[in-house]
Each structure stands twice: as C-alpha cells, then as structure tokens.
Amino acid sequence: xxxxxxxxxxxxxxxxxxxxxxxxxxxxxxxxxxxxxxxxxxxxxxxxxxxxxxxxxxxxxxxxxxxxxxxxxxxxxxxxxxxxxxxxxxxxxxxxxxxxxxxxxxxxxxxxxxxxxxxxxxxxxxxxxxxxxxxxxxxxxxxxxxxxxxxxxxxxxxxxxxxxxxxxxxxxxxxxxxxxxxxxxxxxxxxxxxxxxxxxxxxxxxxxxxxxxxxxxxxxxxxxxxxxxxxxxxxxxxxxxxxxxxxxxxxxxxxxxxxxxxxxxxxxxxxxxxxxxxxxxxxxxxxxxxxxxxxxxxxxxxxxxxxxxxxxxxxxxxxxxxxxxxxxxxxxxxxxxxxxxxxxxxxxxxxxxxxxxxxxxxxxxxxxxxxxxxxxxxxxxxxxxxxxxxxxxxxxxxxxxxxxxxxxxxxxxxxxxxxxxxxxxxxxxxxxxxxxxxxxxxxxxxxxxxxxxxxxxxxxxxxxxxxx
Length: 468
Ligand SMILES: C[S@@+](CC[C@H](N)C(=O)[O-])C[C@H]1O[C@@H](n2cnc3c(N)ncnc32)[C@H](O)[C@@H]1O
Hints:
With about 475 residues, the chain is of the alpha/beta class. The protein contains 17 helices and 18 strands. The strands form four sheets. A six-stranded mixed beta sheet has the order 13-14-17-15-16-18, sandwiched between helices. Strands 3-2-1-4-5 form a five-stranded parallel beta sheet, sandwiched between helices. The model is unreliable at about 455-468 (pLDDT under 50). It binds S-adenosylmethionine.
C-alpha cells in the first residue's frame, strides 16, 4: 500500500485551494461537501468568480502567497501551472500542512481519491497516481453496485445503536444482531424508503433482540482454485460474517482478505506429509469453536467435497449436533480445464470424466488404473505429481495409447499459472523437467489435445510448453 487511507474531519476547518479554473472550482466544491471553510486564491475569469460566489466562497483574485497556507488543515493546488504548483507544494510541506497537487502525486503528501459518497458511508478509491482512470472505473462499478439509499440505512442503524446496545449487552451477539439486520428484510425496507414501517418494525426487533442465541455453527466453504474472483457470493458472505476462519495451505491471502478484520484466523496447513494439525485435531478444533458459540468458516481450496475431507469434517460435526452447512467451490478440475481451454467432456469424443487422486490414503495403488485406462474418457488426476511416472506406466501398460493427449496445469488461475501439454507417455518427464512444485492437475484424454492446439509450441524434443 503506497498511501494509507484515512478520512479527515474538515468540518469548519480552513482549507485552501490555489487556482481559479474549473478544476479548482471542483476541488473547492468537494471540500465544501466536507463542510470545510474554503478559500480560493488564484486568477479566475468572471464566470468562475460568479460560480464561486454562488457557492458562498470568496475568491482572492491574486497570486498565491506563502502566508495563505498558515493555519490551513489542507491545501490543494489546482493552478495548472508547474511553477505555482511547485511553490504551493514546497510552502505547505515546510509548514507541515498536508498538500495535494492535482495530477502530481510526487509533489503531494496526500492524494484525493475517487469518491463514492453515500454519506455517512464514504468510499475512497485510489491507484496512488498509477492509473487514475482505472480508479474512476472502479468507482463507477461500486456506484452501480450500491443502493442509492445506503446512507439512509447507515443513519437508521446509527439511530438505533444505543438502544440495541442497551438490550443486547454481549458484543458478539450484538454483532450477530446487526449482521442479520443488514442482510435481512428490514434493511431492505429502509433501502426502499419505507421510513415509518421500518421504524416500527425495528422497535419490535430490538425489543425481541434476545432472539439471538449463543449456539455456533460451522460452514465448510470452498474457496475455489485460488483466484479470488472465483469465490462464490455465498462463500464471500460466509467469510464476511465468520468469527473464526480455519484455513488450509491452498487458501491464499487475497481470499482471506475478504474476511472480517477482527475474525480469528487459524492456519491448519496440510501439504503432502506435512500437516500442521492432524485431521482429528482439526475436527476437534472446529467443534470446540462452534460449541463456544462462534460462527466458524472452515475454508478449503477448491470444493470441500472433492478430495477435501469435507465429508469427514461434516460427519464429525453433525455427530456432535453442531449446525453444519457446506458451500461448494469451483474445483481445481474445472478451473484448470477452463484455464487450459480443455473441455472435460465433448460430444464428439468424450462422454464421461473421472476425477481421481494420485495420492490415495496409502498410495497410487488404491486406484483401479487398469479399469480407467480402458474407459476411453477424460481422467483428471489431483495430487498426481509425485506418482506421475507410476500413473503413466499403469495407464499405458493397461492399454491406453501412449500418444493420448495430456494437459498439465500448475497453479491454475493464480499469477504463477503454467500450462504444459504432452502425452500419456511424456507427461511425467515434462513435469520433471519443468520442476513443477505448485499444486498440479493432470488432464488425460482426447479433450486435452485442445490445450496444445491453442497454445504456442516450443520445439524441444518431446517437451512442448504451451504457456509460462
Ligand atoms: C487436497 S486436493 C484439494 C482439491 C480441492 N478440494 C478442489 O476441489 O480443487 C489438492 C490438489 O488439488 C489440485 N489443485 C488445487 N488447486 C489447484 C490449482 N490452483 N491448480 C492446479 N491444481 C490444483 C492439485 O492436484 C492439488 O494437489
């Protein structure tokens, strides 16, 4: 983060805008919305003076003087003249007054973000000067997403804050109350402008506020393959309302960033042969947190019910009478297939697909590779890297054509994504030569040919790297 976001209280504070053009007027207007006492210094034409007067501002139609900065809470230079802007910046810095020079982050000690104003909810967006247009696009997207009366909702809740606190003393229960309120029909009523009925309904709700009970719950949530954009909305909501998040190795920081800041985060690891906590310990931890009244999110890579031990955890918790739900996630197979542009089924060639683990409870020998080799369909191998040679041998020895196309996808949907293509005979060697270490998915079958077809082929013996 290059700029620390903070919101300034400028009410009734003297602020200075330097410049007399439309940009300066816009900045003066902005400061006025924050109820600042704004002075504008600069050469303005008659129209601009008229506009500024209409805003209740007095413009001083003269050059900037160092003394103008004295006592100011902030200074904005919109002079559009490099010499004046530089001077304003220097004087303000010397005086220790925060200064923004429009479109010049280097001469600024703060930036004015693109603003979404649903007062008292205010959102500031900045690219730190790197891509202001992108920041503006983000603002437009947020504008479109947020209800117009969001500010009314915040004010409404603010009016009832004290009453709710008086009725529900426990901070955690109170948080849950508000969580339900904001996600529930009453908030919708406020947002639709039905003031009187929402007020009456809120009073009834506050008086029955103890309806919130202490019992906790566990949501076993699929976080998808890594790209935060591939989280489901339901997963996002679960994350944002969780008191405790118990997460695995494949869940990245960018996904955890969606969680509430005050949520407890517990890493339980799980790389091959390197479990931070045993499965039994994880089960016990989930139960303990839920029985203590927390809303627990058990966050897993991909889908929790596909090679995710979600079933084991669900059974353990349900057997103890704990409220447990499952939120599906995008599994690595579909994500990697999309990344490599490999349809897992295709009406012309492939009528079925099987997901298998290359690393069973004991070893790859758990799997009936002989049966799979004969089925002439798509095989998707999770956790197949360590046993790649063995899998290749089993399939070919049991009748699979050695030239059967294979796509190998490492870190699907993540910045370090790598897509390689090979055959049933060559994929172990390709994976070895490329030194793959991240999570790797292997797609075997006719459909995998399309990965190679659409990618650049590097001629290097049997090795065809299709994307780095
Ligand atoms: C313990 S399994 C968990 C699978 C997960 N529940 C799912 O539905 O995707 C871990 C394996 O999933 C595969 N995997 C998970 N994320 C992946 C990714 N982003 N790219 C490639 N493979 C991935 C790898 O085979 C990895 O070894």
